[in-house]
Design a protein that fits this description.
The chain has 545 residues and is an alpha+beta fold. The chain has 3 domains: 228 residues, GROEL, domain 1; 80 residues; 150 residues, GroEL (3-Layer(bba) Sandwich), CATH 3.50.7.10. Helices cover 49% and strands 17% of the residues. The strands form 6 sheets. Strands 7, 8, 9, 10, 11, 12 and 13 form a 7-stranded mixed β-sheet that branches. A 3-stranded antiparallel β-sheet has the order 4-15-18, with helices on both faces. Strand 16 and strand 17 form a beta hairpin. Helix 5 packs across helix 14, helix 13 runs antiparallel to helix 14 and helix 13 crosses helix 16. The structure holds adenosine-5'-diphosphate and magnesium ion. Adenosine-5'-diphosphate binds next to helix 4, helix 15 and strand 16.
Length: 545
């Protein structure tokens, strides 16, 4: 995608700077708008490694496409922050920021000063924040599952969305914290083969010792984070030349390892999970005692294993005692495709959980796992905050209605910006509808009428393409995510509107010139800015080539 670069010799000033930046943000928003909502389209992105990614997930698209314009990069940063902070609403941030700037551009062309628009947008945002709190619904039983299903709809069918949503809700309830849920994905099977493990999954690769038991019931698990080996002394090379010393060293090593294994056995452990290497000889001794040993367990997985099994990670053989052992009803090896994995299940009161995501292709499995990770982080916040909002555009229509009622009380020109903010919010229901082939010109008046009549939670339910009380039909969204999205979009718009000059740092290599914005740099001071009605139009087709 080509996005315009700053084009002047060393600086771009005034209207050109603002309009150029607005244009760049709008180009990105134009790209993402068709992906919004459950009926959104996908983007096919050819990655550098000649692989193809197909996704409608805003965060994935933005991380894969090459965006160079500084203003557009600011938007990408805002979207990324939205994803990491709340797990949802990335596309909404981008689409809303694009629309706020589109409306701002119209006001600029009418002759409003950027500072006036910023003032109006700030007033509007403060009101919106207040309304959001008022409009929020307490999360009651069952609503969490509806909210999770709403977030997953689109990429997978409704049935699958509900199935996956249940897994995510259970995982968060078990683990309490998103960092305590491990999500793995493996291509193969179908999305409905995805499953939750009340314990942990260890990715074994090809690290299993052939003589180890494959299944241990009533597992008492020792978790070790140091190497299980005896090393040669520093001058090993010299020593090993001497067969007698070599034999002595081997005997010594065997004795030490034997003692260590005996200590492990005495503690009652029948499974040893080690973050580092377990020497082959030690593996052999463990196998002789019927103890299952797994080496090279990833650090984060070992920590999660401690949380799942209630065990304590030990670093020294001397620290092994029955109290440090974790418990799992079953530790069992399994196979997915060509890879071995180990299930640690049936833990007592686990504080961690794992989800193994399956899907027809690598792309599907990966996409679903990313969506689940985002969903889990959203659910964690919703569980803490305990509030949600009606989805399907209901909350945006209600916010717009309330803003329009409030706007006349704002004195002077900023009032126009408050109205513009209200109009911009409705971009969400507009694109939700348009992406599903529904005419927004028919839908919006119907939605507005419902809200005027007091139906605050009337929105578009895209499952049957009807205007409905989405609170009752269970199209719900997270309050923290929606709030964060509206705030970031409006802060970004404000930031862009306040930049009146783009300068290049010394020595900065400029990209090849891109299409010139159709507005010339002004020679007049900002106060006297007069935005031409025609010249400010932006030809997106030209930019998208
Ligand atoms: P984002 O990246 O902003 O979360 P999504 O593509 O996930 O974008 O779309 C989110 C929007 O889709 C929200 O406004 C949500 O209310 C809406 N939505 C999700 N499911 C439905 C549905 N079944 N009917 C109507 N709207 C829905
Ligand atoms: Mg979403």
């Amino acid at each position: 995608m080509k996005i315009p670069q700053p084009v002047s010799e060393d600086r771009i000033k005034g209207k050109s700077a603002i309009l150029g930046n607005i244009m760049a943000v709008r180009v990105v928003a134009e790209t993402l708008k068709t992906t919004l909502g459950p009926k959104g389209m996908d983007k096919m992105i050819l990655t550098g490694s000649k692989e193809v990614a197909i996704t409608d997930r805003g965060a994935s698209i933005l991380s894969l496409i090459d965006i160079r314009h500084p203003a557009a990069r600011m938007l990408v940063e805002a979207a990324k922050a939205q994803d990491t902070e709340t797990g949802d609403g990335t596309t909404s941030v981008v689409v809303l920021a694009g629309e706020l700037l589109k409306k701002a551009e119209e006001l600029l062309i009418q002759g409003l000063h950027p500072a006036t628009i910023v003032e109006g947008y700030r007033i509007a945002l403060e009101e919106v924040k207040r309304y959001l709190e008022e409009a929020s619904l307490p999360v009651e039983d069952g609503m969490l599952l509806d909210l999770a299903t709403t977030m997953l709809m689109g990429k997978v069918g409704e049935d699958e969305a509900r199935y996956l949503a249940k897994i995510a809700v259970d995982a968060v309830r078990i683990a309490g914290d998103k960092d305590n849920v491990k999500v793995l994905h493996r291509p193969g099977g179908s999305v409905k083969d995805t499953h939750l493990v009340r314990g942990m999954i260890i990715d074994l690769g090809k690290r299993v010792h052939p003589s180890m038991p494959k299944r241990v019931e009533g597992a008492r698990i020792l978790l070790v984070d140091t190497e299980f080996a005896v090393h040669d002394v520093n001058n090993a090379k010299v020593e090993l030349m001497d067969p007698a010393r070599m034999r002595a060293f081997k005997e010594y090593k065997s004795k030490v390892l034997r003692v260590a294994v005996n200590m492990i056995k005495a503690s009652g452990a029948n499974v040893v999970l080690c973050q580092k290497n377990i020497e082959d000889l030690a593996m052999f001794f463990l196998a002789q005692e019927g103890i299952l040993g797994v080496r090279d367990v990833e650090k984060d997985v070992l920590e999660l294993l401690a949380k799942a099994t209630g065990g304590r990670i030990v670093s020294n053989v001397r620290d092994i005692d029955p109290g440090s052992l974790g418990y799992a009803a079953l530790v069992e090896e399994g196979k997915i495709g060509l890879e071995e994995i180990m299930y640690v299940t049936g833990c007592r009161n686990p504080k961690a959980a794992a989800i193994l995501v399956r899907g027809g292709s690598e792309n599907t499995a990966l996409e679903v796992s990313k969506r689940l990770e985002s969903l889990i982080s959203t659910l964690e916040r919703v569980l803490r905050d305990k509030r949600c909002l009606p989805g399907g555009g209901a909350c945006e229509v209600e916010l717009a209605r309330r803003l329009r009622t409030f706007a006349p009380s704002v004195k002077g020109k900023p009032q126009l910006a408050v109205f513009a903010f209200a109009d911009a919010l409705e971009v969400i229901p507009r694109y939700l509808a348009a992406n599903a082939g529904i005419d927004p010109l028919i839908l919006l008046p119907r939605l507005r009428a419902k809200h005027e009549a007091g139906g605050v939670s009337y929105g578009l339910d895209l499952r049957d393409r009807e205007v409905k009380d989405v609170r009752k039909t269970g199209i719900l969204e997270s309050l923290p995510a929606k709030k964060h999205a509206i705030i970031s979009a409006s802060e970004l718009a404000e930031m862009i509107l306040k930049i009146d000059e783009v300068l290049f740092a010394r020595g900065l290599e400029k990209e090849s010139p891109a299409p010139q914005p159709s507005v010339q740099a002004p020679s007049t001071p900002p106060e006297a800015m007069d935005f031409p009605a025609k010249g400010g139009k932006i030809d997106f087709k030209q930019l998208m080539m």
